[in-house]
Structure formats: structure tokens, C-alpha cells
Amino acid sequence: MAGNGKRPGASMTALGPLTVVSNRLPVVMRPRGGSWKVEPGAGGLVAAMQPILERQGGCWVGWPGVVEEDGRGWAEGLQRAGERAGYALEPVTMNRAQYKGYYEGFSNSVIWPLFHGFADRCSFEASDFEQYRSVNQRFAEATMRCVGGEGLVWVHDYQLFEVGQRLRELGHKGRLAHFLHISFPGMENYAKLPWRRELLRALLAYDLVGFQTARDVRNFVRCAETFGVGGVLRHEGGQALLVAEDGRRVEAGAFPIGMDFEAFSERAASAEVEERVRALQDEIGAYRMFLGIDRLDYTKGLIHRLRAFELMLERHPHLREQVVFFQLVVPSRENVSEYRSLKREFDRVVGRINGRFSTSGWQPIRYLYNRVNPVELAALYRLAVVALVTPLRDGMNLVAKEYCACQVDENGALVLSEFAGAAAQLGEGAVLVNPYDRVASADAMARAVQMDEARRRTRMRAMRRIIATSDVYRWAERFLERATEGPQPGEGFATPAQISVVGQQVGPISPQL
Ligand code: GDG
């Protein structure tokens, strides 16, 4: 449970205890030989929120990773983990059927594909939405147990849209904020959701709704306008002020998430990582390395990337036996059949490309299907001459930022999808690609690996500067300040007359598709 030693900015002390609500707790309970083991949770959200809660104190509400059918033997271990952490851990439990409907069903088979632009992959089941609602109710009840109806509550991500609304119904008096880690879809995609008005109402129950980019804010505002849920008082770039149906003002804003720049670059510069970089270079040979690091997910564009790499070898034959592509694929949602078939497809395409181009001493693609430890991760980031971050759609993509943070020699190039939120911040330093354009992607990869050193350095330096000055601590600070204060006078407060004008527009209107 220990943080990384770095602490959020001093201005945060004034904010007081905080309640964080996310799908998962920062620890996972695992059965081990008849008893329960507490394992640290992984991922960007945990890394971001843990040091803040350690400093502010408060409570973290989330799922401990076990279903009711597993019994309650884990509860004591979890409580002890909370005591060690210095903030309470409030578990939300659910049975297997609820977990399936809420998590595998509505969250991962409706919101995830739809919000990433894959409406055809959605499976809209009314019963899953019902389970989603009942589990969100459980999260709200657990949150009330923690905060007692007062204080700021920060709810995270798409699994928990309705927690704010349920908290208000339960009588919560404090401010409510939500941050969406994934992208918010354009109106044409959002319109396909059978519960499109319900979810907009759920978001407008918060005082602040945070998104990754100005584009997500724009999409949200447009959907609220189109479906007549609430009204828009003001919208400018990445900031908007809306009014909910009950007349409350709701702020929406772009808060691009960052990562712990200092921790990653310090680790990348450490002797341990340097040694690992040398060993890895010996293992792969004297080739220039392309790197991909992704959870196994169709949104990450893995197959498109492989095919573009193949085309690069075809169109730029002088690069054969000069480069290798190393892809780390992190297992994800392995009990979902769609993810298992993506893995088979990935294996098949890698096999075909390697079969086509390998020579006696060279194999163009290597991949590892596993998680690696932080030292290994930093070594891979540091060794790679080019990182390929080419999702078909991504809220932000922290891999892009972590790669730059680990490029302590400022010598690498980043090929980045236009459809990753990170492109809005890093666009000028990265080599931007449309991952659906195979020829352009292939040529961009070749350009990146052959870019002259001076240009590569200038670009990398520019990206590192941006990432260092908007790290995860500044992100949390900015968000929490906004969540605590709300809009100030002169920042677009509407007059009662304006609200009633907006009020007249509220009501069901047919979307202009
Ligand atoms: C969602 C949004 C948004 C990966 N492999 C290993 C490992 N990782 C870590 C990376 C990175 C994280 O996993 C992946 O984060 P991403 O941002 O790339 O993607 P999602 O998981 O889809 O996250 C995304 C994010 O939320 C934050 O708001 O950026 O758009 O989809 O931190 O380092 N870590 C370790 N071993 C691995 O093998 N230790």
C-alpha cells in the first residue's frame, strides 16, 4: 500500500478528507491456500489516487475483487490493509449474477465498445442495465456509510455513472464530482444507446464532470443539447457550464490525466534499469527496436499496427534485418470470448508476418503475453527507438506519456494515433497517424525510425516538457480545486432569466442525426 514517496502539492492540504469511488479498490483480495492474501491493485487510477488519499485521509469505496459466493473471510484482512494505508477501505460486494450484468455486461459490452466507437460490438440487454443500476445503488450506499452524507465525493469512470444520482436520492449534501477516463463518443454513436437520456441525467447529477479532452467535453455538450437533458449555458473550448433539469448548475471540463513523470524518469535512469537495458539489447541483437505496450483490447489497434508494420517492411525493404518490433500484450478480460479470439487473431498475424520475412538470423516481430515488473517496463521504454501507440480510440493513453518520461536520453520517437487523447497534448512532438490508414502508418513508422537525431531530440524534449508540467499530481490538484470550489462569479453564472430560457428548450426533442 505504500505510495511512491512523492506527495501532492501543498495547496491540497486545505481540501480535507476525500472520498474516492472506483470500480476496484486499490487492493485486491486473493484466495491463497485456505486464507486470503491482500495484493496491491495495479493501473493508472490507483497510482494517481493513492498518494492523494494517503495525504488527505478519507475513504476509498470499491469492489474488493471477490463475489458474495466466495464468503466473507477476506473482510478482516481488508480492514487491516486500510489501517496500514491511513484511510478507510469500504468494500462493495455483489453476487456473481450482479457482477456479470454490471461489469461484463453493461460496462464492458455496452459502454466500453460504444464509447470507443464500436457500436456493432455492443450487446444491449435491458437486464444488464438493471444489474448496473442495482450495483451503482450498492456503491452509493457504501459511500454513504463512509461519508455520512457530507463532504466531497469523487467518482471514477464509466462503471459508476449513476452513483452521484443515487447519492443525491439518499440525501448526500456534499459536492459530487465524476471523472471519465475513457473518451465520450460523438453524438451519432451515443444516439444508439437505448438508455441515452438516463445516462445523461446521471452525469448531470454531479457538480463537476471531468473528461480527458476538449473534444470529449464538446461531444458531451452536444449530446445533452440533442437529447434535451438539461441545457447548456456556456461552452468554450474545454469548459462548459450546463444546467440540470432541477435547475442546478453543472460544470464540465477537460482535465487531461497525467502520470508520475518524476518516478518514471528516475527509475529509467537508475543503474538497475541501465543494466537491464544492456541485457535486453544483447538478447534482441543490434537491431533498432519498435515497441508496443497494450492491454489485449480491440480498441488498442493491435492488428492494424501489425499489418502496418508488415507493409513498412514491404515498402521500405532496406529496413529488413535493421529493426525488430517488440510487442508486450497485457492479458485482459480473459473470460470474455471476444478477447480470446482477438488473441488467436494476433497470434495468427504475427506468425504469418514472421513466416514471410524471417531470415536465419532475424525475426521481425517478438511478443510477450504477460505483465512485467516496473523495472522491466522502464527498460523496454528506454531501449525502444520508436514507440508505437496507435489505438483506434483511447481516452488518453498513459503508455505514450510513460515512454517519453523514460526517454531520459531524449533520443526516441513516438508514433501516436490521432484518436488517442494524448494527441491533443503531444501532437506537435509525436509523429501522428490515422491507424486506419495502413500506407500512411507504414510510412510514418519508417520515417520515425530514420528521423535524424537532432529532430528526434527536439521533438522528444518538447513532449517531455509538456508531460512533466502536467503530471498526475497537477491533474488531481486541478480537478479537486475545481470540484471543491465550483464556478466563480463572473465565470459564466447564469441569471435566473437565462436559466428559464434554457429551461424552455429542455424536453424531448428528436435528434438531428
Ligand atoms: C484507461 C483509459 C486512460 C501496461 N502493461 C504493464 C503495465 N501497464 C500499465 C501502463 C499504463 C497502464 O497499464 C495502461 O494505461 P493506458 O492509459 O494505456 O490504458 P487503459 O488501461 O485502457 O486505461 C486510458 C487511462 O484509463 C487513465 O485515465 O489513459 O485512455 O482507457 O500505466 O504502464 N504496468 C506494469 N506491467 C505491465 O506489464 N507494471
TrEMBL record:
InterPro entries in the record: Glyco_trans_20
Signal peptide coordinates: none
Gene3D superfamilies: Glycogen Phosphorylase B (3.40.50.2000)
Family: Belongs to the glycosyltransferase 20 family.
The protein's name in its UniProt record: Trehalose-6-phosphate synthase
